[in-house]
Each structure stands twice: as structure tokens, then as C-alpha cells.
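dumping this here so i dont lose it
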């Protein structure tokens, strides 16, 4: 089975024969599907579902962090209506419509808070680069006049972050070094934001992950690096592989911070699993 791009959409092949077609027009937040058809002899075999899933995927319909809207003609009969309903399409204004609101992830919650609370940040630190998502966010936040430092102990994380930044036309000072050493590179009391996203590097060896032995000294260094009014963010993880040790140790450390110097927020998602990412914020007074 192969999906090929055509002048007006896509064609689904089985070996050398076209068994399905879809006419699609891209839209700013999704696409308008003018028609989708499978040859009668190939219906009820999953090919229509495959074709529609691919259209949704290619136009961002499964992106958890983006709002999308897809439209299609009203169904000709009840069976066709059930097919579209399975993928979230409902009648709206004389058409079928599939609207998807972005999920509120732990990462998005932290980034939205930082962008709203410190829109004019000038010096920011990504203490756990990973694949560069937070680093890129900080680069956009500070703009061309700001400064962003990124740390990760894994060379592949630094390489992945550098490639991501280059693709997006962004730049940061990247260090293949422990985040516990961030004060070697920035003066105390000068950073607006320090971000941590603990756990493991997505797409890499999951047997390599952060632990409290290095994470807590890095958090302490981050508080020293922050200016009054600055914010430290940390997303904590737990699970079958990494256990709960780091998460519980950091939570204990956060709750012991003196109120006269810091305000600490632990943002629990009440209806998520206990192992879901846990976003935390420390506001330095």
C-alpha cells in the first residue's frame, strides 16, 4: 500500500492500482477535504480509515499542541456518517467539521506561565536541553537582544538542540556540561528564568536519566543564579523505569524552601495518572 501526492490531493495505491482518492485543500489550521472515496470492492477493509488518518496526520490533525480545523462534505448516508464520526467529524454549518483544541501539557503550562509572567526576559537558562524545545522557546522569548544558555551532559542532546535552533533561525550558548555547573557560566543574581525538564532524553537510551544526586545541586545553583523576581521551572517525572526517587526528593526540597525568600507552586493535574509529568515553579522574592 502506498499513498502518493496528486495535483489535487492524494491517491492510495495497492500494488500498481489506485484503490482510493482524496481531494484536499490545505487551510491555515488544517485542511478542507472535498472528497474521499475507496473503490467498492476495497471498502470495509480499513483502507478508508487509513487514507483519512494519513490526511489528518499530514496536515497536523494529531498535533497535541496546535489547534486544528478540518472540514468535509456532509455524508450521503448513515454508514458514511458513522465513518466520519469515528474520526471526530460532526455536522456544523452545512458541512462536517473536526475541531481540535490543543492539550494542556506540563511543558505548555510552564511555557505559557513564563511568557506571561516574564515577557521581557533578557537572560535565560535551559538547564536540561534535551532536544531543544525549551531552549528554542527561551530564544524566542528573549529575542535578538537577549541571551540564552543551554546545558546538557549528553553530547547527542547538545547536537540535537543545535540542529533545532539552526533550523528555526535561533541561537544560544550551548554547553556539554552538568547543569550543576551553571554558575561557572553566569553571575549570581542575573538570570530571569532557569528551566529544568528532568527524566531522560526523548529518543535516546532511557536507561540514562537524571537523579536527585545531581538535580538538587543544580536546582540550588539555579536559585543562586536567579535575580529577585526571577522564576525557576521544573518538570518532574516518575515511572516504572526511573521510579519516584528523584521526584520525591525534589518535592521535599521544594517544600522546604523558606517562604520569606521563595513562593513555590506544585501544579498537580488532578485527573492525570500519578506518573504524569508534574510542573513546578519557584518564584524568587
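and the seq i came up w/
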Amino acid at each position: 500500500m502506498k499513498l502518493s501526492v496528486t495535483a489535487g490531493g492524494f491517491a492510495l495505491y495497492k500494488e500498481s492500482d489506485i484503490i482510493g482518492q482524496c481531494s484536499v485543500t490545505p487551510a491555515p489550521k488544517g485542511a478542507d477535504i472535498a472528497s474521499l472515496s475507496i473503490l467498492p470492492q476495497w471498502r470495509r477493509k480499513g483502507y478508508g480509515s487509513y487514507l483519512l488518518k494519513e490526511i489528518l496526520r499530514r496536515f497536523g490533525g494529531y498535533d497535541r499542541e496546535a489547534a486544528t480545523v478540518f472540514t468535509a462534505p456532509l455524508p450521503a448516508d448513515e454508514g458514511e456518517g458513522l465513518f466520519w464520526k469515528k474520526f471526530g467529524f460532526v455536522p456544523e454549518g452545512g458541512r462536517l467539521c473536526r475541531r481540535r483544541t490543543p492539550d494542556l501539557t506540563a511543558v505548555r503550562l510552564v511555557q505559557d506561565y513564563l511568557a506571561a509572567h516574564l515577557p521581557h526576559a533578557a537572560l535565560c537558562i535551559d538547564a536540561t536541553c534535551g532536544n531543544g524545545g525549551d531552549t528554542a522557546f527561551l530564544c524566542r522569548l528573549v529575542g535578538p537582544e537577549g541571551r540564552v544558555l543551554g546545558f546538557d551532559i549528553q553530547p547527542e542532546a547538545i547536537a540535537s538542540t543545535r540542529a533545532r535552533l539552526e533550523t528555526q533561525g535561533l541561537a544560544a550558548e550551548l554547553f556539554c556540561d552538568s547543569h550543576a555547573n551553571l554558575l561557572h557560566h553566569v553571575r549570581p543574581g542575573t538570570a530571569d528564568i532557569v528551566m529544568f525538564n528532568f527524566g531522560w532524553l526523548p529518543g535516546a537510551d532511557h536507561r540514562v536519566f537524571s537523579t536527585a544526586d545531581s538535580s538538587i545541586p543544580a536546582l540550588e545553583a539555579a536559585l543562586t543564579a536567579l535575580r529577585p523576581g526571577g522564576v525557576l521551572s521544573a518538570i518532574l517525572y516518575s515511572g516504572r523505569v526511573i521510579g519516584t526517587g528523584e521526584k520525591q526528593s525534589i518535592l521535599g526540597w521544594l517544600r522546604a524552601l523558606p517562604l520569606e525568600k521563595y513562593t513555590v507552586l506544585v501544579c498537580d493535574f488532578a485527573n492525570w495518572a500519578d506518573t504524569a509529568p508534574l510542573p513546578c515553579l519557584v518564584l524568587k522574592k
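The radius of gyration is 24 Å.
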